[in-house]
Each structure stands twice: as structure tokens, then as C-alpha cells.
Fold LysR family transcriptional regulator.
Amino acid sequence: MERRQLEYVVAVADDASFTRAARRLHVAQPGISAQVALLEKELGERIFDRDARGVALTPVGELVVERARGVLQAFDDVRTAGAEARGLVRGAVTIGTVRGVPLGSLAASIAAFRSRHPGIDVRLVEDESAPLLAGLADGGVDLALVALAGDPPAAVVVRTQLDDRLAVAVPPDDPWARRRRVRLEELAERSLVGFPPGAGARDALDAAAGRAGVRLRVAFEAGTVASVVELARAGLGPAVVPETVVRTPLGEGLHGLSLAPAVRSRLALAWRDPRRRTPSPAARALLAAVLRPAAAHGERDRRPAQ
């Protein structure tokens, strides 16, 4: 039994295809098939059922893949520990952040990580939450700060940093400026200012409106919090933003109203579940540097069901 055989088995299981696994690993497909066949012969059991529709794990295969992930993780742990001891971890990582959201303590964690691992290049990308989550699932992003309206994709683990309610922000001369609360149904009567689809706050609002059977009109969209509140301050319509925004300097000059029923949006750190695909040594070092300080403060991870 060889390590590469375990790597091939895990890759085929992840991609549900010998061809896709070979393409991702840059290995000839017949080579992967031959190595998997050798492992099956050694075990005396089939790992995959193969038919015209593709491949699927057998019951024995599910156990083999689970144990193979553990073995491969142990190999990487040993290699990473040795490299860290010599200060030789190298590579590159990609960190995503939702547009318009300050990095906060994440910036300090990135700086500490870079100081400890100068051989690892860090790429920071800004996007909406949906493409960032997709990037985590397919391996293009290693860690992301995202806004969540519901459950994350099955291959992604999240750790909530902030659980916030949405609020409605209006200027002092708005008809709602003397009110303390506005109902979701009333938003349908106004042209709104908000984030584009794919942003966590917008997705949370749209989901709540859909459940209530309310059709909203977001007439003015902007990708950053600063732009959204500026449009509201200019009188272009009520802005639907996280409640904390109204209480920060960004919300100065705006009156905040509670939304009824309450609609929540979460800001969370998210990363690919290592049980689904083993991260690179560089990505493992990043996750250790960023996640351990948060765990020390009692923050809990939400992992997808197996």
C-alpha cells in the first residue's frame, strides 16, 4: 500500500470520477485506475462500483476513504511540523472577504501569520459572499470572511464572528424618521437602497420577504456599506443594513428603525472542511494562525453533516 494510492482513492471519491480526479491531480487517468485496482486487489475488496453513470463508493470504500483521509492528514501534519520547525513552510494562500466589511481582528491575525511564515504569499480578494463560498468549496479560496443568510455549502465549515439583525436606515427628513419600527410588509411600499444579490444582508432580506410573500423593490444597489448609507443619506430611499452599521460613524446622520419580524445576517469565518479535501501545508498554517486565537475565546465551529 502506497501513499499515492490513498491520494488517488480520496481524489476519485471527492470528484466521483476517475477522469476528473486525474485532471485535477495532473496524472494520466489509466495510471489512477491501475493504482486503485492494485489497492483493491491488496485489500481483497472493491472500493468503487463502476458503471456507465460514473463511480460510487462501496460500503467498504466509504470506510477506506475515511481512514485514508486520516492517514494523509497525518502525513501532512508530520511534514508541516518539520517545515514549521525549520521555518520553511512555503506556498501561497488566498483569503476572501465580503465587499465593504472591515477585516477587524482578521487583519492582525494575517499580519501575525505573515510574520511567522514569510515564505508564504498572501492574496486577498474581495467579492460577494456567494462566490467566496463557492471558491472555498472548489479550492480557489482557503479562508473567507463572509456574510451568511442561511446554511453554508456542505463542504464548508463556518465560525460565526457576528450575529446581527437587519435595520432600516433613513435620513432625518424621511416620513419614517420619527418611528422606531417598520414592518417587512411596509418596505414593499418604498423604493429601497441595499446590497446586490449575493451579499449576505441582501440574501437574508430576500429570503425573509419570500417567506412572508412580500415583493420588495431594491431600486438602488451598492456593493459597500459606505455607498449604501450615502445613498440613503441623500434621500434615495430607506436602506436595509446590518443594525450595527447604524450605531457606527458610517451611520451618522441616519435614523435606525427595527425591522419586524426580525431578520438576521451573520458574519462568519469560513473554510473548506478538511475532512472533504486535505488543505495544503500553507493553508493549514493559515488556518492554525487565524482560528486558534478565536477558539481560545470560546467561539464554536459549525461543521457540515457527514
In short: The mean pLDDT is 85. Residues 59-86 form the longest helix (28 residues). The two ends are 26 Å apart (CA to CA).
